[in-house]
Amino acid sequence: MAKNGATYQQGDLILSEDPWVYTVLSGEVDFRCYHCLRLLASADSSSPLLNKGNRCSACKYARYCSVECQKKDWKERHKAECFMLKLGGASSVRPPVHFLLMLKILNKLKTNFDDLMSSKSPSSLQKKRKTRTYIDLVSHAEELWNTPGIMEYITQVRIMLGKYLAIENDAELPYVQDVLQMFGKIKCNGFGITDDSMSSCGVGIYLEGSALDHSCSPNACQVFQGPRLTIRATKAIHGGMKNVRIAYIDVFVPKEVRLKRLMDGYLFECTCPRCLDDTQQKDAEMFSIKCESPKCALAVPSDERAEAPCKCGHKPKNGEVRLDRYDLLLEELLQRVDRFDQEGVGCEFDEKQWKEDETFLHRMEDLLHPNNPLLACFYSMMGRMLLSWGCETAPQYFAKAAYIYRVWMPAPAVDPVMGYAFLQAVERDPAVGEPLDSFKRLIEAEKILRFTHSKDHSLYREAHAALRLAAITVNKICSRNV
Ligand SMILES: [Zn+2]
Ligand SMILES: [Zn+2]
Ligand SMILES: [Zn+2]
Ligand SMILES: [Zn+2]
Question: Which residues form a coiled coil (predicted)?
Fold first, then answer.
């Protein structure tokens, strides 16, 4: 037990675990190593998209960054599924991620399939085990059962399973209830795997990690190195593992968005302290708009208080109109961010799209208070877009995002997305930009990533190396000025 009686102090390792099953996102399969999830680097070009890596010659689906990854993957998992991917024609019609995970689960359960599938599992088996297994994963199958269209979907999945497993006889396929349950378990327990640049690259099921509950004000964070999951405390945690809370979704969005995303994605109603605050006062204060008076810098809550006089004395004339505009902006923001998330690293520079995003950003900046985290969300999306295109202006956007996150997570709070934003808020070329600004941002990045990622992580090492370089530059300038 650590000092102050807390089980975990900030930065303490809570859990480190390899996935039970995982897969690269269907849209990313051409760009990433099927085993380590790294972007496939090119030897002769700076574009990662030109080199397609070593492709599995049998299924023509999986690609690898190296022979080592290919060999390891074959031994550990691909051998069992390769012929299925070939049979199903996965290389020409990309199956959805859920389906790929199902194949992997079926392979895992093959040896004791009958024991582990729900409708046939003897309860005596459950009592004997110490570690978590497939049976322990929640599926919310009852709620799923009542979802419109779910049965049609499960029927399709079974037809697809027949194709991939070469089973023609319906009676030999897994039962409808078992497929539904498997689908539910994947939905409720799947972790979105992100790479060092916080881009989604895969989905995995972690038997121990999936036991951790969600909160919209979490005290721990998840970070990945390849497919390996690590959970670290971002605050001191008392009372042991049962009080550890991670965030399943981006929590810097208003309550109604969080509730919808958690219900759609994980089939539960969030009852964290932040969501139980019925008044939603705090949310409206966080996601604030500007005062109508151009001379005033105060934040106005985005609820009915927007129609009351501001603390500066200004009486708003368009309070209601501005609240309507806020709702529309929020809706459009979510669409734009979703679009970016779906396109992923494969997206190419699209000038028209970029201009539209820029115009949209200006509309947000016109209405929203500069500290509104919705702006941070969009700034970091734009930064990531620019970064993937190799544009030099990316750091400006990351800097804006990073400082907004700092307002809501003041030091000593740490968060992986904030740490990443500070790291990217620095010009890669030390000759460009303000050396002192870069230095300060890298200090922040190093301080945060040390806790969220630990000193062993490649992203931390990148920050540490950049900070050392920046320190040398700042030193030179200081000694010149003396
Ligand atoms: Zn690899
Ligand atoms: Zn293969
Ligand atoms: Zn919540
Ligand atoms: Zn005002």
Answer: none
CATH of the domain at 457: 1.25.40
Provide the 3-class DSSP secondary structure of residue 357: helix
Is the same domain home to 233 and 335?
A: no
Q: Closest ligand to 290 CA?
A: 4
Q: What is the pTM of this model?
A: 0.91
Crossing angle (nearest 10°) for helices 373-388 and 319-343: 30
Q: Give which of 36, 61, 56, 290 is closest to 164, Cα–Cα.
A: 61
336, 369, 402 - which closes a domain: 369
Same domain? 41 vs 89:
yes
Decide if 377 is inside a domain.
no
What is the CA(281)–ligand 4 centre distance, in A? Answer: 18
Q: Residue 116's domain spans which residues? A: 23-195
User: Which pLDDT tens digit goes with each residue over 413-424?
Assistant: 999 999 999 999
Expressed in angstroms and rounded, the spacing between residue 481 Cα and the centre of ligand 3 is: 52
Ligand nearest to the CA of 35: 1
Ligand nearest to the CA of 258: 3
Question: Which residue carries 């115009």 as its tokens?
Answer: 359
In a domain, 414, yes or no: yes
Last residue of a domain, one of 195, 218, 249: 195
Query: Which ligand gives the minimal distance to the CA of 277?
Result: 3
Q: Which ligand is located closest to the Cα atom of residue 311?
A: 4
User: In terms of domains, do 163 and 27 share one?
Assistant: yes
* Whether residue 363 sits in one domain with residue 299: yes
Task: Please check whether residues 39 and 111 belong to one and the same domain.
Answer: yes
Neighbouring residues of the ion ligand 2, judged by CB less than 5 Å = 56, 58-59, 62, 82
Output the average pLDDT for the chain.
90
Sign of CA dihedral 7, 12, 16, 22: positive
Q: Give residue-wise pLDDT tens across range 105-114.
A: 999 887 555 5
For 235-274, the pLDDT digits (tens) are: 999 999 999 999 999 999 999 999 999 999 999 999 999 9
Q: Which numbered ligand comes closest to the C-alpha of 310?
A: 4
Q: Greater confidence, 43 or 324? A: 324
Is 241 or 389 the better-scoring residue by pLDDT?
Answer: 241
For ligand 4, the distance from its centroid to the CA atom of residue 51, given in whole angstroms, is 55
Beta bridge partners of 300: 289
What is the rounded CA–CA span in Å between residue 35 and residue 50? Answer: 19
Q: What mean pLDDT do residues 129-135 have? A: 80
Q: How far does the centroid of ligand 1 lie from the alpha carbon of residue 60, in Å?
A: 16
CA distance linking residue 270 with residue 215, whole number of Å: 8
CA of 44 to the centre of ligand 1 (A): 18
Same structural domain, 304 and 441: no
Q: Are residues 272 and 283 in the same domain?
A: no
Q: Compute, in angstroms, the gap from residue 6 CA to the centroid of ligand 4.
A: 43
> Is the pLDDT score of 44 beyond 60?
no
Give domain status of residue 423, yes or no.
Answer: yes
Compute the distance between CA of residue 181 and CA of residue 196 in angstroms, rounded to an integer: 32
**245 CA distance to ligand 3 centroid (A)?**
11
Contact, 175 vs 121, CB < 8 A? Answer: no
